[in-house]
């Protein structure tokens, strides 16, 4: 019964198709399917511009209409023939139960004729300027054991409210937040500044106090945690509060002006969910500000985003088109082979061996002062290259393989209490030749560092006093005549 019904409907739709009928209430030349053409019009036709009209080509079996002209008749007549065509494709539609899915649905634009009908099918809204009426609109409570896309998020008393602007720019608080529907909206509130402390929509508690049900009709509740509070002053400067205590709007009369502090300007929900359709975490961020009579009416911004558990979301700048004010998405192409040039590898290995901020001088003593630079010992840097056998130099790569630091020290001072003193430091960077690796091959390079301390103290020599010597001047002939 269903197949026959679809076939009859398809037959009627194909017979009514006429892609060459471009002029309303007029006969188009050589358009054999134009219902405005008569037998007199067919007499001047040369051929049918569209001889075959078919329906949707996605069906496995479809009706086709073949048009032709019988010029032997007087006057010439149009020949209309219905045939069945078989789709040779393996992937085709045998039968469809929901025909609107085969085409895009044109959105119905509200006008004065259909406005009342659209009002009855909508969820309803309020035009109350204060927008603090209790949530009286009751939606159908889902009975599923998990949240599905578009299902309103339930709280302990009703639904999670997400303010929205409907027919005008004014905020309405009767709109429920839908599961997996990311939104970012701005709306306006006309408020009486003298009553700012009494308006719930201006208070943090209005957005942070509800508890979201983990799944529909569940007894497990997920509290909303305030993650950050940013205060915006009248001159637009921003200050982040260290604590996340809930603040209440406070009215301050300053002479002829009235100020209301701690007013909610922006609200950002971040809800974490699992692939089983459960809400596991709810975070909330606020932007509070000070409102004066100059900035009334007040504009508020609301955002809600859903993040899947154990995933790292990629921020988008539009879907699909770019949104004004969002950053441009950019990226880089990684190396196709993963190979690195020799000079870059040598520089990386050298930086690993030297470390960060390799010194130029070493203090001779442990208590040497920085201002006594002339007493400090300079480090001597030496670079050596070691060429392995059977390696061709033009096809090899010189890579540092070892850093050898030699520290020469001596014993300084008295033999009874000698002190260690550094007299020389040498840093020797040893490089080796490695053959160039072919593309796709990997090689492991071993690098090492070594520090040696060499005692260059000379053996101590015993010290004695010099023997006595006579330093007297005697006359030349003092021993005469004996000598």
From TrEMBL:
GO terms for biological process: cilium assembly; protein localization to ciliary transition zone. Pfam families: DUF1619_N, TCTN_DUF1619. Residues 13-115 form the Tectonic-1-3 N-terminal domain. Residues 144-308, 339-456 form the Tectonic-1-3 domain. InterPro entries: TCTN1-3 (IPR040354), TCTN1-3_dom (IPR011677), TCTN1-3_N (IPR057724). GO terms for cellular component: MKS complex. The keyword Signal applies. Residues 1-16 form the signal peptide. The keyword Glycoprotein applies. Keywords: Cilium biogenesis/degradation, Glycoprotein, Signal. Part of the tectonic-like complex (also named B9 complex). Belongs to the tectonic family. This is TCTN1 isoform 8. It comes from Pongo abelii.
């Amino acid at each position: 019964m269903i197949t026959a019904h679809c076939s009859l409907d398809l037959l009627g739709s194909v017979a009514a198709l006429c892609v060459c009928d471009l002029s309303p209430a007029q006969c188009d030349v050589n358009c054999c399917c134009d219902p405005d053409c008569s037998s007199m019009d067919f007499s001047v036709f040369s051929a049918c511009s569209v001889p075959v009209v078919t329906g949707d080509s996605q069906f496995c079996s479809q009706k086709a209409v073949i048009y032709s002209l019988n010029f032997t008749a007087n006057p010439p007549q149009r020949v209309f023939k219905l045939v069945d065509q078989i789709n040779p494709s393996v992937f085709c539609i045998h039968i469809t139960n929901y025909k609107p899915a085969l085409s895009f649905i044109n959105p119905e634009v509200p006008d004065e004729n259909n406005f009342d009908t659209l009002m009855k099918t909508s969820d309803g809204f309020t035009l109350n300027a204060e927008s603090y009426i209790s949530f009286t609109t009751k939606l159908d409570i889902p009975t599923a054991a998990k949240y599905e896309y578009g299902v309103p998020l339930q709280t302990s008393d009703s639904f999670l409210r997400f303010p929205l602007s409907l027919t005008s720019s004014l905020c309405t608080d009767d709109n429920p937040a839908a599961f997996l529907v990311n939104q970012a909206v701005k709306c306006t509130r006309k408020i009486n500044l003298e009553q700012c402390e009494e308006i719930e929509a201006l208070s943090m508690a209005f957005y942070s106090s509800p508890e979201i049900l983990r799944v529909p009709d569940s007894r497990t509740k997920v509290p909303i945690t305030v993650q950050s509070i940013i205060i915006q002053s009248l001159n637009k400067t921003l200050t982040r509060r260290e604590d996340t205590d809930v603040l209440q709007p406070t009215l301050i009369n300053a002479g002829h002006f009235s100020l209301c502090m701690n007013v909610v300007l922006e609200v950002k929900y971040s809800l974490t969910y699992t692939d089983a359709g459960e809400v596991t975490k709810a975070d909330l961020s606020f932007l509070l500000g000070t409102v004066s009579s100059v900035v009334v009416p007040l504009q508020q911004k609301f955002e809600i985003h859903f993040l899947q558990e154990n995933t790292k979301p990629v921020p988008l700048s539009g879907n699909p088109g770019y949104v004004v004010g969002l950053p441009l998405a950019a990226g880089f192409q990684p190396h196709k082979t993963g190979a690195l040039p020799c000079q870059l590898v040598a520089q990386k290995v050298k930086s690993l061996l030297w470390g960060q901020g390799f010194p130029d001088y070493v203090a001779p003593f442990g208590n040497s002062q920085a201002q006594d630079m002339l007493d400090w010992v300079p480090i001597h840097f030496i670079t050596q290259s070691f060429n392995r056998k059977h390696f061709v130099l033009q096809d090899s790569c010189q890579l540092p393989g070892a850093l050898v630091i030699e520290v020469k020290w001596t014993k300084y001072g008295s033999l009874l209490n000698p002190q260690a003193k550094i007299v020389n430091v040498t840093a020797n960077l040893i490089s080796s030749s490695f053959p160039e690796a072919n593309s796709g091959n990997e090689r492991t390079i071993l690098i090492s560092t070594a520090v040696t301390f060499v005692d260059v103290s000379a053996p101590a020599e015993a010290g004695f006093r010099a023997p006595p010597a006579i330093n007297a001047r005697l006359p030349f002939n003092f021993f005469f005549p004996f000598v």
